[in-house]
Amino acid sequence: MHFPRRIFRWMAGSLLSASLGIALGAQAIPPPGASAGIRTNIQLDSNPALFTVLAAINVAGYRTGLHAPGASPLRDRLRRQLLAKNLPIYGELRMFYQAHELANPALNLAQYISLSMFLGPPPNLRLTVPATNLPPDAAALTGLLPLLRRFYRQAGLAGYWGQYARYYRQAIEAYSPVTRQAIAQVDNYLRLSQTYLGRSLYIFPEFLASPVETHARNFLGNYFIVVGLNPAAEMRDIQHTYLHYVLDPLVRKYPAAIDEIMPLMPLARQAPALGEQFRRSPSLFYDESWVRAVETRLDGGTPAQQWSRIQRDQAQGFLLCGFFFRELEQHYERDVVNFSEFYPSAAFTIPVRTIAGEVKKGKIRFAAAPAPPPPPRPHPALSLLARGEDLIASGEIAEAGKLARDSLASGSSPRAEAEYLLAEIAARQGHPQAAQRHFENALATASYSETHIRTWANIYLGRIFDLEHQRAQAIAHYQAALATAATPAARQIAQQGVRQAFVPPPPHPDSQ
């Protein structure tokens, strides 16, 4: 498939959906021509366990796609609501997230989505399978479960789930007709009978994940896909997943067909752009080739346009796409048969030697690997903070305040540094309420990497609450500061704040 704006992730062995009936607003997608009352195994649903996991990582440092084109403002809104609480559990979540962060942003998110598919409903969030049966990416995160349960209770996530439920209901209603249409297009082309045999495909609209990635999983014959709230942007990915749902069982009925293509795998693995999952698994490689060939026929267009898409698939390493495409065009579509009757003849006549020869002679040329994501660049906000603190240290308070306010007005710098500077100024000028407000705003907008702001804003807030004789809230801020403190001095001050309430030093004689 070709997704100019999105990254599509397809993984096998990562779903057991026995517990997914907990979600609100589920809608079955009836087969073409069926009455609305007929239940099928295609379910549009929402998932409170997925909501809980994604809410947790959003306060723990997950920011990928937060302001990308197509991102839902709901994610930023909920994230701000949660961060404003500044709970001590957030520090523990941030440490866990940092310890398990992967270099690839898509795989980093995928592991949390995988875990959420094996969780029962909150607040208990119990595993629905033994931990030994979890896929590796989910198994690596089981230490998150105690933190998730505390986070759900302390953050009052049940209330937020109720507050945002209507957006999930609206998404489910919007997805239903277009999903039905996409599924009908596949069913009409393949002409297969509606036999599910206990298998299910779940579609979860979710606003808390990056809008530039789509995640699909399957486990024990069940499939799921997590998508954004915009059906128009997601329908191709849903149709792709449904094609796997329909075709994969048929392919598994004839395992010998995959044995036939094994000589091609070393050549396919030479393709720099071939995804790692397809390099490892010949069956995934084979299934994906069929799905892409069918998609190209469904997409339509001129013969030249369709063949151009097939050539791009082959350049990515899917060497079988050309043969499968020609078989569909020249044989399947000209005979009045269904796909299950056509498939065996095509599966066992693959010209492996001919395809290998095309690669060796350069008739199939591999594309370059996608460029890796650029390394993070130093944020311009750091220079704002350094300049502002230099001005404060030199006594130029008015200039520092103007710098921060101008930055907020122009939007040229992230808000956290400007808010932090304004808080420092308010504290120095003896305006505790304004200082508290700006420190809290800084915490609500700072990323996990901005440890200086997170640590010292919490320390200052702890001192403010101590001076207001609100010791419990003060301790919570000192503990949050300990979770992000990057220097011995910061840790020592935060630990001192936990041990005893802050008492301001007596004024210096020179200031009398």
How would you characterize this protein structure?
The chain has helices spanning about 50-60, 75-85, 90-100, 105-115, 135-140, 145-155, 155-190, 230-250, 255-260, 265-270, 275-280, 280-300, 305-315, 320-330, 340-345, 350-360, 380-395, 395-410, 415-430, 430-445, 450-465, 470-485, 490-500; strands spanning about 5-10, 25-30, 40-45, 200-205, 215-220, 220-225. It is mainly α. It has three domains: about 5-240, no CATH class; about 255-360, no CATH class; about 380-500, Alpha Horseshoe (Serine Threonine Protein Phosphatase 5, Tetratricopeptide repeat). It has a six-stranded mixed β-sheet with strand order 1-5-6-4-3-2, with helices on both faces. Strand 5 (about 215-220) and strand 6 form a beta hairpin. The longest helix is centred in the middle third of the chain and has 34 residues, at about 155-190. Residues about 1-25, about 30-40, about 375-385 and about 510 have low confidence and may be disordered.
Please tell me the total number of domains.
Answer: 3
Distance between the termini: 74 Å
Counting H and I runs of at least 4 residues, what is the number of helices? 23
The biggest sheet, with number of strands, parallel, antiparallel or mixed sense and barrel status, is: 6 strands, mixed
Overall average pLDDT: 83
Poorly predicted regions: 1-25, 29-39, 375-383, 508-512
Main-sheet strand order equals 1-5-6-4-3-2
- Structural category is mainly alpha
How much is the radius of gyration in Å? 27 Å
Shape: elongated
Element-level helix/strand string = EEEHHHHHHHEEEHHHHHHHHHHHHHHHH
* Helicity level: 55-70%
| Beta-strand residue fraction | 5-15%
Give the tally of β-strands: 6
